[in-house]
Amino acid sequence: MDIEKLIETALDYRNKAYVPYSNFKVGAALLTEDDKIFGGCNVENASFGATNCAERTAIFKAVSEGYSSFKAIAVVGDLNNLTAPCGICRQVMAEFFIKDAKVILATSKDNYVIKTMEEVLPGAFVKDDLIN
Fold this sequence. Notes:
Blueprint: H1 3-14, E1 27-32, E2 37-41, H2 54-64, E3 70-76, H3 87-96, E4 97-108, E5 111-116, H4 117-120, H5 127-131
């Protein structure tokens, strides 16, 4: 896994964010099991409930292209402090991420931490709980 490339892609998508209300840009880069990268940015709306986070934008874009299993995501928000996904994004990530998926929180290619899904969303509510 090329962590630097994922972070670089997330930084690129961060620059595309539409954030006229919060001015808080977030970019994400999602890695499929066959190493294809999908990027996403946050897109705000005057009706705040219609806002979509960068992580979900990337996931939904990938799912709409036929992918549904992911092994990593890089997230870049604040360039001075690490930005973690919100609760809704964490739940969506739990739906599609493989067991050992990595969540990379970064401010730059040189400053990042790698977390597991269990660390980001302990005791996640997942589809296997519904199926079995």
